[in-house]
Amino acid sequence: MYTGSISRLPPVALPPSASRRLAAVGRDPINLHKALAHAPALLAPLLDLIHALRFDAAVSRGLRELMICRIAQLEGSDYELAHHLPMAVESGLDAEQLASLDRWREADCFSVPQRAVLGYAEHLGAGAPRDDAALDACLNPVEQTELTVTGATYIALGRMLRALDVRVDEGLSD
């Protein structure tokens, strides 16, 4: 139950270091940042990792968002979906693709590289067998590594969000 808070923990001020990191990339704090502000020494490097995944990765933004959205589905993270479905659209994914994520194997709206990423998301997030041939045919080692870190990071974030019962930010929920 929420009593004016954004998570099951009481609200705290965002540490100045986190505020500076967010301002440097033109972002306002979201409920995830505010909930993790209880551990500022951990929030700072996590923000650095998230920002590196978002702004410094070689793999296309569309493939990263596809990975994140499928991981969010597997984790049951409404919070991550609320934030990343709009980013997925901005990155070029269409409504049919986003509606078909949970049944991507039967859908014909995904490219071969997208299918490789979705299969890899299920390997990371649900223990499905890894298809090395599909990955190697579509993604170079840098891209595979970045997608591995992206998927693992968003699995961890989904679990943090669930454990701390972080509420979807106002204006993003249905």
TrEMBL record:
Gene3D superfamilies, per database record: AhpD-like
Organism domain of life: Bacteria
The protein's name in its UniProt record: Carboxymuconolactone decarboxylase family protein
Domain (Carboxymuconolactone decarboxylase-like): residue spans on this chain: 40-122
InterPro entries listed in its UniProt record: AhpD-like, CMD-like
